[in-house]
Every structure is written in C-alpha cells, then in structure tokens.
Amino acid sequence: MSISVRRLLAVPEWRESVRVLAGDVDRVVQLVRPMAPDRSVEPGELVVVQSIPATDWRIDALLRRVADSGGAGVLLPADGLLETTRLLAERLGVPLLTATASPLDLLISARLLLAAPTLDRADLVLATHEALGPRIRPPEEVVATLRELLDASVALLDDSGALITGELPHADEVRVHEPVPQNAQLDEGVLLAHPVLLLDTARPALWLAAELPERSAARADAAPPALSVAAAAVQRWLLANRLELERDARSKTALLGDLLRLDDEPTADLRRRAADAGWSLGGWHIGIRIGIESTVDTVARAREVERVLHAEGVDAVVVEHGDGWTGWVTFEQEPTADRVRSLAAQLRAVARELQRTLDAHMGVGRPHPQADGLATTIAEATDAARLARTRPESGRFLHVDQLGMAQLLLEWTRTDTFEPAARALIAPLRGQPGDLVRTLAAYLDAESSIAETAAVLGVHRNTVAARIERIERLLAVDLHHRDERLALHLACRAVGRTEEA
C-alpha cells in the first residue's frame, strides 16, 4: 500500500511534531524504515534517522542516495540541522522532515497507516464516539470536540447557511439546498459538510461542517465518518430539544387561548399559570402578530423569531399560534405616543429581517391595559396582519396607530372591534371647542365641500375651513387622502349611530 508524504503528515502524531523543511510532500511513500548504512534505499522509502546527528556528513550522502533511488524522503531529529543540508534537499527535491517526537513512535504510526489505511479512519471514529458518548450534548460541545479531534475549523449552520455556533471561514461554500454529505476542495484545504435531519424531513434542519486546513487536508478521507458520528450527536440533541420545545409550545398556546377567551377577570389559577410562564397580565400591552405560510415549522423557527426581536431591542413574549406567532410587549405605564412609534419602527425592522428567510407578514396593535386589553390588542394585531399580507407596498407590515387605522376600518366593519376602533380614531376631537366631531361628519357627508358644510352647520365657511385644519392637525391625517377620508367617515357614522341609540 502507498500513501503520500502529505497524507502521512496529516496523521495526528506526525502533524503535532513533524515539520517540513524542503522537498515535494506529494511524493509517494511505500515503506518507512530506519536508516542502515549497509543497505540500499528502496523506491518510495521514507528513511528515519535515529542515531546519527543531523550535522553528520552521512546525512548529505543519505539525501543523495534517496534522490538517486526514487525514495520518498528523510526524517531527522529536530536539533542541529545545517542550512547547507536543507539547501541540498531542496535542490534534489527530496522531502526533508524534522521531528521533535520519538522517531520510533512516528515509525510505528506510519507503518500502521501503510499497513491498514482505514485504521486511521476507524481510530478517528472511535475517538469521536468516546468523546461524545451516549449522553445528549449541546451543539457547542459537539463542535468543540470535533474541532479538537480534526484540528480544523468546525461550525453548526442552520438550513439557510447562517452560523449557529463555531467558526467556518468558508461557510458560504456549504450547499444547504443539497441534503447530502459534501466534500469540496478549497484553495487551501478541504470543506466537509454533513446534514443533520430532523425526523422524516427531507430538508436538513442543520448542517455540521468542518474546514480542514492544508496541513490536515490529506486526512479528508478519514474525517467524513467522524463528522457523521458528530452529526448524529447533534441530531439526538435536536430531537430531545424539539420534544421539550413542543411541550413548552403546547402549554403556552393553551394558556394564550384561555387568555384570549376571557370575558371576565382572570381566575387565580389563570394568573398563576401566567406567572409561571413569566407573563405579566398587568400594565399596558401592545399586540404583535406574525403570519407565515402553513408549511413553516413554527416550533423549530421560534428561536429565530426571538433572536431577531432581541437583536432589534424588543423584549416581547412570543407564542407559536396557528400559522405563525402571536406576541406582545408589556409596559408598566401607558406608553407615550413617541414610545409607541419607536416600538413600531423596531418591529418594522424585525419584519424586514424575518422576511429574509420567511414569507412573513406582521401586524401590530394599539396599547391596551390589563388582561382584557391583552386580548384586544392581539385581536387588532391579528386583523392588521391579515390585511398586511395583501399589502406588499407597505412591506407587508401594518401598525394600528391613528394613521394605520384608516386601512383597517373597512376590515373591522363586521367585527366587534370596529366600534372601539372608531371611537379611538376620533377621540382626540372630543372636548375640543367648535363641535369638531359634528363638523367632521358634516364635512365628509358633504363630500368635502366647505360651502355645503357651512350651510348645514349654519356657520361661516371660514369657520369650517379653520375647523377642518384643526381636525387634520389633531388627528394627524390628511383629508385629501382617500383611504383616511373613508376611514373617518365610517368612524363618524358608527359613533353617531351608537350615540343616537
């Protein structure tokens, strides 16, 4: 059996103690023997020098004999080598190696590799099994173990190729759309990748990848089985973690369902369950609804949603709920308008980031207090998300503030949330001098005619014009905008009907 000098140098014992000083390491090694002055050098022989000092003239003679016979190279002790000897080896093209370890130990490991090349692979697989063991280990520990065993960069990637843990200089070379083990040549090494499958899914949930540098690349034939063993360890963790996540998700989804069905004060048991989940029912809540396609695994992707929210500075509760996630942010006191706008901007950034890997749409509700307010704001957010799904021009994001409510009122006209939303929309006009609610209603009924509105109200047209300017300023709307005009018209009609009743 024959191997290259490069492959021999990738064996752990050689990699840790042997240095190349000269020559072509792609030369073929067919046998490894100690130096003997009374015999010739065989073709493909790597000669191991044990007792002769590196400064002895016989080393130069040995280099010439190796070159003349087609030998594979010379291995010397590390101390005292002359520069002239190195230059001679370089000129002759003979690999010249120096070792800090015992030549006898290196000789044994080289002969074992030559006699049974698969033994190195078996040793590596066994070492991986022993290091990881039967215990379920977190991915960080698996990656660290494999990095030490392979002397390589190792990382765990998600199904989009994003880094989860570890490091991998050429992570973008992993073909995550091809669910098979991979082996790719790099300019200075080899990239190996193994898929981590979850249950019966064809698409890998994760990828375990290793990038062997040039000094270890020749060992790429031995690494894939070890990578497979490590991938199985990640899979065990993934399955165990998935069971825990599913139990937690079912519990939280059931709790959320009970809260959304509330028609009275929460019971003591419900409050205890909420406290156990870390949810605050007091304070003011702003609901969030993230909708996705039904084919997405919401349990598996929940951590990603939480990570993106955290990255944007949003401290939100997130629950897997239907085709997507329902969440909310809680404030101890009623948030100011500026704080609400700031949160909406953060959530818009979250929506953009999620849309990089998910076909997602998002709706955001208004602030509402206490447990019943939580159900209200989530209902608003859900309606907003449903409408946002059909609005690519808004980035498929809709916040139910006074401006965004114009887009929602038509959606709400047949729901219980319509009247409260209508009242909230025109609330800033209440208590203002000039009967602004009636003026607005008359103005919209008159199809925005200042003259006709003045005639209906019995006031001067300049008075109507001044009131309309105040209304636009108080509501932060533009009555020239068709959607906002329609929304306000519907709101005035709804409020007017309930007050007449």
UniProtKB/TrEMBL annotation:
<protein>
    <submittedName>
        <fullName>Helix-turn-helix domain-containing protein</fullName>
    </submittedName>
</protein>
<dbReference type="InterPro" id="IPR041522">
    <property type="entry name" value="CdaR_GGDEF"/>
</dbReference>
<dbReference type="InterPro" id="IPR025736">
    <property type="entry name" value="PucR_C-HTH_dom"/>
</dbReference>
<comment type="similarity">
    <text>Belongs to the CdaR family.</text>
</comment>
<dbReference type="Pfam" id="PF17853">
    <property type="entry name" value="GGDEF_2"/>
</dbReference>
<dbReference type="Pfam" id="PF13556">
    <property type="entry name" value="HTH_30"/>
</dbReference>
<dbReference type="InterPro" id="IPR051448">
    <property type="entry name" value="CdaR-like_regulators"/>
</dbReference>
<feature type="domain" description="PucR C-terminal helix-turn-helix">
    <location>
        <begin position="436"/>
        <end position="494"/>
    </location>
</feature>
<dbReference type="InterPro" id="IPR042070">
    <property type="entry name" value="PucR_C-HTH_sf"/>
</dbReference>
<feature type="domain" description="CdaR GGDEF-like">
    <location>
        <begin position="266"/>
        <end position="387"/>
    </location>
</feature>
